[in-house]
Amino acid sequence: FLMLTGYDTAVGTTGNVVSNANPRVVGRLSLDGSTIDTTTRLTDPGASNFRSVASTNGTDLWVSGAVTGVRYTTLGATTSTQVSTTITNTRVVGIVDGQLYTSASYGAIRMAAVGTGLPTTAGQVITNLPGRPTSAASPYGFCFADLSPGVPGVDTLYLADDGLGIQKYSLNAGTWTLRGTVGAAADAFRGLTGVVNGATVSLFATGAGTNGNRLVSLTASSGYAGTISGAATPLATAGTTPVIRGVALLPVP
Fold first, then answer.
1. Phi and psi at residue 113, in whole multiples of 5°?
2. Measured distance CA(170)–CA(5) in Å, rounded
3. Which H/E stretch holds residue 159?
4. What pLDDT, in 10s, does the model give residues 25-69?
5. By three-state DSSP, how is residue 220 classified?
6. How far, in Å, CA of 28 to CA of 1, rounded?
7. Residues 69, 75, 76, 80: is their CA dihedral positive or negative?
8. How many Cα atoms occupy the beta-carbon half-sphere of 209 within 13 Å?
9. What pLDDT does 211 receive?
10. Residues 44, 80: contact at Cβ < 8 Å?
11. What is the b/e burial string over 103-140, where b = at least 16 CB atoms within 10 angstroms of the residue's CB?
12. Helix (H), strand (E) at residue 1
């Protein structure tokens, strides 16, 4: 499935949909594009930004928003469980190797693990990744990669920061170490995904900066510990009315 978030607002409505109290919707699109399920209509994330969703199976859902943070729910539900009150303004959620992560720009949290594993109950703690900045950063989309056979599990992190560019971190003795930044604050990158081919990662990012609403690609060929370099290649531009936001990869049968 392709999962996405949105707002239960009538077509043609003017004004800011973020500030209304209408339900926040999770959409589930089938891989072949034939069916979309929008029965998940949550009334408790608050009248603010509803930003992201991650799922393991299309039924168990973790969502993220600007008021009540990371929440757990299931397909077709109207309410959800706030899994942590540590940080209540979160951005993108993702699941990697059975662990739930979120990006944020609030308090001392920027890129963090949510509890342990895939939490479904309240009382979890959101913990910043060791070595990651705890201030002066504005991260959104992220993707992990396993590039070093000498480091168990994922060892490389790519992070889209709308105030910095696309950053690369490598895990070294339990600490995430910065390995360079490409792009600039003016690119306003937010969405990010990638696919690994050996030691090379093909990154795809979305941004709404000085070069317009666009989808770009970037080949990160510096491996596990090398410094990221190169320039983004534009793939598509949205024009002046639509806004390109997230980006995701779907497996091809």
1. -90, 140
2. 30
3. strand 156-161
4. 999 999 888 999 999 999 999 889 999 999 999 999 999 999 999
5. strand
6. 6
7. negative
8. 21
9. 63
10. yes
11. bbbeeebbbbbbbeebbeeeebebbbbebbbeeebbbb
12. none
Place of tokens 């928003």: 65
The amino acid present at 160, given as its one-letter code, is A
Displacement of CA 54 from its chain's centroid (Å): 9
* Beta bridge mates, 142: 159
Backbone torsions φ then ψ of 36, nearest 5 degrees: -130, 130
Closest of 72, 56, 67 to residue 122, by C-alpha: 72
Euclidean distance between CA atoms 225 and 67, whole angstroms: 36
| Nearest-angstrom CA–CA distance, 132 and 253 | 36
Amino acid type, 232: A
| Averaged pLDDT, 138-142 | 96
Mean pLDDT of 72-78: 98
Number of alpha carbons in the 13 Å side-chain half-sphere of residue 95: 17
Rounded CA gap, 143 and 248, in Å?
10
List phi, psi (to 5°) of 18.
-65, -35
Give CA separation, 68 vs 23, 32, 250, in Å.
14, 33, 29
What is the SS3 assignment for 161?
A: strand
Work out the average pLDDT over 132-143.
92
CA separation for the pair 94, 212 (Å, rounded): 26
- Assess contact for 7 and 40: CB atoms under 8 A: no
Strand, coil or helix: 29: strand
